[in-house]
Amino acid sequence: MRLLTHNMLSSNIKGVTNGFPLLIEAEKFIEKTVDFNPDFLKNMYPKIEWKALVSAATSMGYNQLPEEVEPSMLESEEFLKKFHHALLELHLEEGALICPETGRRFAVIKGIPNMLLHEDEV
Amino acid sequence: MPSRIAQIKLVSGHPEVYEPCDDSFALVDALLADRINLLEHRPTVCMEVGCGSGYVITSLATMLGQEGDGHHYFATDINLHVVRVTHETLKAHGVHAEVICDNVASGLERRLEGMVDLMVVNPPYVPTPEDEVNIDGIAAAWAGEENGRTIIDKILLIADKLLSERGWLYMVTLTANNPFQICGIMRDKGYASRIVVQRSTEEESLHVIKFWRDADVQGEGKEPTSTNKTPSASVMNSLLSQLPRLPFWSSGS
Known about the structure:
By secondary structure, chain A is α+β, with helices and mostly antiparallel strands.
């Protein structure tokens, strides 16, 4: 599971008002190279919750992202490469995503998050 | 010559996972036939709901390209065995999609709203008695209730939420699902539609329908309410006028 996916996942449990971002419990993570495409990154940037990405990356051992982004940074290849690395190349293989409100754990096994809700959570 | 779609011999299997069949092939053929349009359209976020063996999402990622080309893929399915098989199929073909085990897209719905440029769906659609819907295992792949519409209707609601302004949806339907009515429902939500592939076998008639947002469609008045819910004359004419042109408008394909 990439951090782009993590940035797009929220807890949809009944009654939860703020299910984003899910906290990451990382047991095993790896890095996988992905082709760099600056346009794709600039396209995605407005939809990314930056603070959530920064803390997710930190939980995976990557601390190179700036805490805040100035618009001019989007023209810097150096910044875009760090953004690219955090967003697409860090993979959570084993662990869990945790609902910030209820503490409910969604397991991540072999890189696949299981977001299925139980009957009483729907 | 490199393959543009998934190769059957590389598609993983599992007793609980729906093997690619006529409906999967029809959907991939529809996408392949529209490949030039799809490439020009440059969908950034692409999604398959109900990924089964992974045949469709793998074919899609193979034919359009990956992140380097500006495309990112998500695939979801309610069955844990399915998502693992999809993952294996993708890996066997050297392509990547983010695979998530979920009921349609419940975990993605909020954040991905209005962001999906391309959605493909081969829903469970075989009409079954109500008690078979939402059961576990491989039967979930084909149980769709009454005229097979429960899950289709749910997926259409979610698709409307997730699709971007320029989002395209390709969906496989059976005649028994009443595709004209589906098009009518989508028209009320502001979508134009076109049957892009039609196949008839001995057992069923499949239609792959493409939907896209169209301001002109939205501008037209609402259908007059009627108790038997027949589609409007203009929807019928639009769809019927396309049928004689289809080269495979006959039994077999």
